[in-house]
Amino acid sequence: MRPALLLPAIAIAVASTFAAAADPPSPAPAHADPAAAVVTVNGRVITASEYDQALTATVRNRYYHRAPPDGEMATVRRDVADSLIELTLVSAEARRRGVAADSARVDKDLEKIEARFRNMPGWAELRGPQVARWRADLEERYLAEALEKQVRAEVSPTAEQVRKFYDGNPALFTEPEKVRLGLILLKVDPSAGKAARDRAREEAAGIRQRLAKGADFAELAKIHSGDESAAKGGDMGFVHRGALPEPVQAAADKLDGGRVSDPVDVLEGVAIVRVSERAKAQLRPYDAVTDRARELLRRKMADEAWKSFVAGLRGNAKIEIDSRRYPELAAAPDAAKAAAAPK
Length: 343
Description:
Blueprint: H1 8-22, E1 37-41, E2 44-47, H2 48-63, H3 73-96, H4 103-115, H5 123-153, H6 159-168, E3 174-175, E4 178-187, H7 194-212, H8 217-224, E5 235-240, H9 246-252, E6 264-266, E7 269-279, E8 282-283, H10 286-315, E9 319-321
Antiparallel strand pairs: 1-2, 1-9, 3-8, 4-5, 4-7, 6-7
Helix pairs in contact: 1-2, 1-3, 1-5, 2-3, 3-5, 4-5, 5-10, 6-10
């Protein structure tokens, strides 16, 4: 799996290409000329058609095909404009540096997109210009992605920086508290009714009474528990804080020295838990986590380097926004540079 990239424009723009291929192209809003400029970046025009396509894809991905909540659409519109600006700047810089798009990847993606349209009436006549547009779109996206990878790859923290990062972020390298947990689980099918759960609660209460009178926890677990730990007498070994369901964690927090909880309702049924040992949270030594510290710092530095790189491109760019056509974009970061084009 390829690593997730920080630049939101790439994700939005690639999604817009595939979203456009999911259905026949939809017309631009009645008030917008599809060829009209929404944003112009160093002379490169982002049209209403391009913008609306990216907007549709973003809404689909962010809200799973539902309409955005009231009040959020203006923010989404600005996010899309901002991302397309960054994509345009980065892909242009990639070309200037002689970065090459992955042509094999472009061809493979084009094949997937075109496969959705091959049986559409009239596709033979439409194919040439449509595929050319998709190819140009994908090349722009993958050029930007390639340049981002290059910028990130240039980051390499020194040993001194890694040590300083470790010392300054102990929470990242602290092994959380853990408990040695015993479990007796009386399973109840989630689809079973209240009567089945009530019977499990009643059985659990009886088991709890027997434990209070000195019955052996391990033996009762082997007989009654439906958890896979039953074969080990209910012993689940050491479990870190945060790895347990909330009701079980709450019960375990009150136990120590082999004490047993009251029955606890959990998703799988009714549980009785025992804590036989408790190990406090402890900072792992630097030598044991050096590689992890280096990788965490490298990612952090790469994020900062990429943000700074994109900010530099934006700072030197001429960006014009048609805020008359799309009023929400007036509050975009580059609104001060906006040139309101006539309708």
